Amino acid sequence: MSDLTHLEKAQALQEKNLMAAWRAMLSHEAGRLVLWSLLDKAGIAKVGAGMFMHFGSDQDALLRGRQQVGGEILDEFVHSNDPEAYFVMLKEADVRDDELRIAAELTETEGEQEE
Fold this sequence. Notes:
Elements: H1 2-26, H2 29-41, H3 57-81, H4 85-114
Helix pairs in contact: 2-4
């Protein structure tokens, strides 16, 4: 019985350390950016519920699997450690999108001036 108690204690400590690592990652913009890139690969970074794209049976199955993993990450690690983190990541992503949009507009304007 004491072996099981040691095992349970070790598992609880590992879980505690994992959650602390998630909280540390979510507290830094660089950590949130890495997580955002993973959620983007999972196909759920900026897609609302019911708005998933459909490509065909094989691609849909792959995308659904990715989305399931991304959803589990959000539920088990992000929302449970920092309920506001996803909203912060959305705002940060909007800023990055705006920076890209402005850069594209400047590039287009410069291209027109060169003509």
